[in-house]
TrEMBL record:
Name of the protein described by the UniProt record: Protein translocase subunit SecE
GO cellular component: endomembrane system; plasma membrane
Subcellular location: Cell membrane; Endomembrane system
Task of the protein: Essential subunit of the Sec protein translocation channel SecYEG. Clamps together the 2 halves of SecY. May contact the channel plug during translocation.
Keyword Secreted in record: no
Organism superkingdom: Archaea
Gene: secE
Organism for this UniProt entry: Candidatus Altarchaeum hamiconexum
InterPro entries assigned: Prot_translocase_SecE_dom_sf, Translocase_Sec61-g, Translocase_SecE/Sec61-g
């Protein structure tokens, strides 16, 4: 594959990527307040859950090292 073919394929990829990105952006919309609140609540619960699991693992490993 020579350099001209590689450049052409790269240009086609960029054109395709721009076209698909534009299509996705046309489909998006601003979330309603209730949707935003729900996503925020779920994300916060996920962060707390992962933090708690990490703390429990840290605590258990700390107890194992002490014994």
């Amino acid at each position: 594959m020579d350099i001209k073919e590689r450049i052409t394929k790269f240009q086609e990829f960029i054109k395709y990527w721009i076209k698909e990105t534009g299509r996705i952006l046309r489909l998006t919309r601003k979330p309603k307040r209730s949707e935003f609140d729900e996503v925020t609540r779920i994300t916060g619960l996920g962060i707390l859950l992962f933090g708690f699991v990490g703390f429990v693992i840290f605590f258990i490993t700390h107890l194992i090292k002490m014994s």
